[in-house]
Amino acid sequence: MAQFGFENDIHSILKLDMPITNAPMMARWQRKGSSSNAAAGLSSLSPGKSVNVSQSSSKTPSKTPGKNKKTPSKMGGDRFIPIRNSKQMDVANFLLTKENEPVDANATNSSETQKFWSVSLNGYNIHDAKILHLGGQPLNAPEGYQNNLKVLYSQVTTPVSLKKTRYISLTAEKILDAPDIRNDFYLNLLDWSSRNLLAVALHNSVYLWDATQGDVTMLMKMEQEEDYICSLSWTKEGSYLAVGTSDCKVQLWDVENQKRLRSMASHTARVSSLSWNDHVLSSGSRSGLIHHHDVRVADHHIFTLSGHSQEVCGLKWSPDGRYLASGGNDNLVNLWPRVSEGNSSEPLHRWSEHQGGVKALAWCPWQSNILASGGGTSDRHIRIWNINSGSCISSLDTQSQISSLVFAPNYKELVSAHGYSHNNVVIWKYPSLTKVAELNGHENRVLNMILSPDCSTAATAAGDETIRLWKSFELDPIKKKTSERKPKSTSSVIHQSIR
User: Fold this and answer.
1) Hey, where are the domains in the chain?
2) Topology of the domain covering 174-477
3) Each residue of 101-138: pLDDT tens digit?
4) Which of 7, 139, 234, 432 is most buried by its number of CB atoms within 10 A?
């Protein structure tokens, strides 16, 4: 019996019904076949998940025992494929290959940082990218996200109807006859009052044109036929008109009553330029002298400035009343302080850069320290001066004689009137001095130019015996309503009776 028991033990050992743990390694062709079969079995799984298949049944199963319900995949189980975004396909392909790579334990970037980079570069989180997408709505951008490329390349242009365009008519809006106007470059025969009255000197008479009503009135006429009017200047309030004559006198007229208030004699030559500073009237003469007159007192002549050797044909007080600019036929531009700041006969600045007579002078209304001057036929330059430093900021050769300069504040422009040889008006952008427009129409040299009270229209008088009105600076309706709301002072600065 013992013999049979020993044989049974031998047979049970030789059956080999148990797996051999120390068996030799499988051949390469067998391993290759085995891996292809495993890949075929995995083809039905979701492409977004990596699966690790154990070749040994002794390893712990990956699924929890007792749970038959599978966890749904992020991608969904449907095979419907809508229109695909090529960018998301590339990202998804990257994710599939990335998942099979070992995780770097030394990675320094956190998941939140990677998410932030992904949203900034791609516009969405790449971990949410899908190849199969069943929803009809696009992925919502995170709160506060802005696509800079969309702002840069998809900016909606402003409709043409909303663009603010400014039309400048190249023809005069109105033409007035000016018979017998003196064709003399050094005279100042035109001025426009704050009450919208345009005064013009025609030989020995002064006429007033009401720009509102269109009426024409003759204010005065000189007694001697050979005498003539040399200069005109309105007071700030527009109630009184100063008239410089060829018989060396300065007359003061009450326009409303058409009455001459006084005649002031102090010069020894014709009075070719005038400028007001409150109750002080400054007059420039052919003798090269400038006289200050206090029109409130009987002894009107209060001071004399002697800085020019030839005729003073340009004279302008600054808007704040602190400085007086004078230009002469001696090619000089002088800057004087007001009388209350000292009775010195020496100018603060004396500029000699011009090569021709300086008649055109203009103060910038929005920059009190800026003065513009223009030279005659031998110079033809516009020069911009900084009165604080005394330096020339810019210079421009206009290729034509400059008879007048005005600043147009509505569009921050500088306007120049020209004599020989262009005989036109040019609008320049300030401070670049780039040409905006040319206004042609006069057949002879432009002698004088003045701006209307609302700064919308320029009036030019020329040797062709015409006065042309150029409505080139009209404000848009919104700015016009704002300016109309501002109260305007109508009180006179001349408080005492004029003797």
Assistant:
1) 174-477
2) Methylamine Dehydrogenase; Chain H (2.130.10)
3) 665 555 555 677 777 777 776 666 666 655 554 555 55
4) 234
